[in-house]
Design brief:
The chain is mainly α and about 270 residues long. Its main location: nucleus.
Length: about 270
């Protein structure tokens, strides 16, 4: 009985340690554990010791719910998940919890909704306005829905959830079609969904910082150390290409492609 009861706790912990885990999983896993507690109250009604343990665990979980309410990022991550959106809250949360989550997400969205568009998106709009007569006529005959002035956040969260064709919601938001349809909301989504589900990986990076600040490098500024660790983590996760430099002071650019033969005298 105990092993069966604890299985969701084990799986939730392991999933949030995965490399693809993100903060949108936190409240979802807490909801799963909450349901496990509620079901256990019924199943174990004749086992006084188990019922007492379940109530104690439920109380601890409720404390974590209260802590998550202090930061709107947790609920916002759920709302920005393309397979969940507002429908998830409507089906699984109490009405008062729903409104608190929505209000917090709207406050966070207010910091992004007035931001100027990136130069690339602005240029694409100018190109459409300055199109040749043929292109203008062709665009006027298009049967596609034209972009509306509807609030991006409200439009997204109130739309029906749909299956992702990507592994994570962060990858989904990185796709070009999301950038074009939600030019400002996609930036908020990238900032929110880039937050890891657990702090174990950032803590490991922080611990490695000690090796970057040896006694003979004690004058490094905090920003320099932060930049070193950030770049090191990006390289470790293959987010940027390595730069190879010749030992004899001759700098050779080898970032052109995978078919480049690296000289034996180079180091990364």
């Amino acid at each position: 009985m105990t092993h069966e009861f604890l299985q969701p706790f084990y799986q939730a912990t392991m999933e949030q340690q995965m490399g693809w885990a993100s903060i949108d999983q936190v409240l979802e896993n807490m909801d799963i554990l909450f349901k496990q507690f509620e079901d256990a109250k019924v199943k174990c009604v004749d086992n006084a010791r188990m019922v007492n343990s379940v109530h104690m665990g439920w109380w601890v979980l409720s404390e974590y719910y209260e802590e998550s309410d202090k930061n709107p990022v947790y609920a916002t991550a759920l709302l920005l998940h393309p397979e969940k959106r507002r429908r998830y809250l409507d089906r699984h949360w109490a009405e008062e919890w729903q409104q608190t989550a929505i209000d917090g997400a709207r406050r966070l969205w207010a910091k992004y909704k007035k931001k100027p568009l990136s130069s690339e998106l602005a240029c694409s709009g100018n190109e459409r306005r300055g199109a040749a007569p043929y292109e203008r006529i062709k665009q006027s005959m298009s049967v596609l829905d034209t972009p509306s002035d509807e609030d991006e956040f409200e439009k997204f969260v109130n739309s029906p959830p749909r299956h992702m064709m990507t592994k994570t919601p962060l990858e989904w938001w990185c796709r070009e079609e999301q950038t074009m349809e939600y030019p400002r909301l996609h930036q908020m989504a990238l900032d929110v969904l880039s937050v890891p589900a657990m702090s174990d990986d950032p803590e490991r990076v922080f611990s490695c910082t000690r090796r970057a600040t040896s006694w003979d490098r004690a004058r490094l500024l905090p920003g320099t150390v932060e930049g070193l660790q950030c770049l090191g983590n990006w390289i470790k996760n293959d987010l940027i290409r390595k730069l190879y430099v010749a030992v004899d002071d001759e700098i050779i650019d080898v970032t052109g492609g995978d078919d480049v033969a690296y000289p034996s005298g180079l180091y990364s």
